[in-house]
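Hi D.,

Good news: the full-assembly prediction came through. Inputs first.
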Amino acid sequence: MTEPGTVTERDPAAALVTSAPWTLISGAVKGVAKKYSQDRSALLPVAGGRAVVLAVADGHGSAAHFRSDLGARWAVEEFTACARAFAYEVVRVGGDAARWTGLREEARRLPQQVGHRWHERALLHDCNAPAHGPAVPRRTAGEREGPRDLAAYGSTLIGAVLTEHMVFCWQLGDGDFVLVDDAGTPHTPLSTGPDMGDETDSLCEPEPWRKTRSYWRPFTGGPPPCVLLSTDGLSKSFTDDQGFLDFATGVRGRAAEQGVAAVQAQLPDWLARAATFSGDDTTLVGAIAASAQHSDDS
Amino acid sequence: MSDTTQILADNFPGGSMASRPVHFIWMLDCSGSMGVNGKIGQLNFAIREAIPEMQQAAQSNPAASLLVRAITFASGASWHVSDPTPVDQFSWEDVHIYGGTDMGAAFKLAAGALQTPPMPQRALPPVLALASDGQPTDDWRAGLRAIDGTPWGKRAVRVAVAIGDDADKSMLKEFLGNPELEPLQAKNPRQLAAAIRWMSTAVVKDASTPKVDDGSRATTTPIDVPSMTKGEDDIW
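Then the structure:
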């Protein structure tokens, strides 16, 4: 389970977190007409700030997924716990390319660790307080019990580990991971194209790690100026994909022109505006590299 | 717009934003039997009367843009309202009876509209609302397969009302595509009005709300249906 104090669930109005060479930003707004948000997020500097762990999770939120706020919380907590240990290893390996293969093997195992830990927590919770009432035993002797239905807790998850040498990212379900390069060009290496409706892969499915997409990239020319993770409430508010990609480029541009503090201050308003169009909870976490920052920030 | 709001809007980084469309398609039986005991007249009345409530339901969710159109089927099928019409501009011209019950032809027409394109990928699931009083007279299964073969058709929220005792309820249940759902039953004008109102309000609200599905279950989940208790004024 999560070590106390390791997850930084940020208040949107909180002060900027600096983790050289990064400054971290975050914002979250509740969907229009929703009682509460089922999104959760985390930002965590690791190894004295030499690595950063970022995560967002989007609890499904509809009646069938009435405990998805818990599912989203556990998703970021368990990811952060696993990714924190991994981040120390990434820092240890650093730029030693000979050891990158081992690192990537470890990265491939991470979704399974997170999935198991999430399922353990959901199972424990559901055993203590069954989502669908007390189970009626229907098994005959020798018959095995089928997998427990954890749909009530369903959540997506996007997580990343970022150092000055490389980035690892994992994504299960919808939402967006964007790298903006020095030229301001946004890259979405884990995108599977436009979603239809609101269907998504989820942690509540059996063996969710099989549907987790992953990405790894060493930074040969230095770290990218901007890395953003967001729930789908943001991208679905734009009339097309390009509008969302322009948003990512714009965040990087505003950070350079106006400073990261100004971006952080305006982020809740930007997300609130998006949420009026998507109707969904909208959450974003990001890391802005020092090279991309306005001189007043440094 | 205040100065501060204008500055924030001007400084917004990104392209244009818009709510997602919800396409609502009426599929209405205009067979000869709908002329018996005033069914077609009551259907016209019920749809026309439900429009203000439909508009209200749509306004309550600004994150969705409701677009309405209608198909009639009898001897063949045709678009009664062919353009996806914003609900606040939607009005109702009466439909009239003209022959058999070619429901399969209506399904094929709807399937054509549910292809992408013309349907955008960026949308909320469409609503298919079917009203019928009889047995289909053409190959409705082929039409249903055509709907199921489209990306939006298999994700559509489907609702149906059986008008009178002669409606093919097992066929309507198959159209719904979810064993947990039953078609509504209307045996008198009051029940038909309640069913049409429910389709125009509760179903519209449900379809207009962003909701995630994990893909492990049918996309159409039961919505609270109006009670259709047997009444002494049953005439159909």
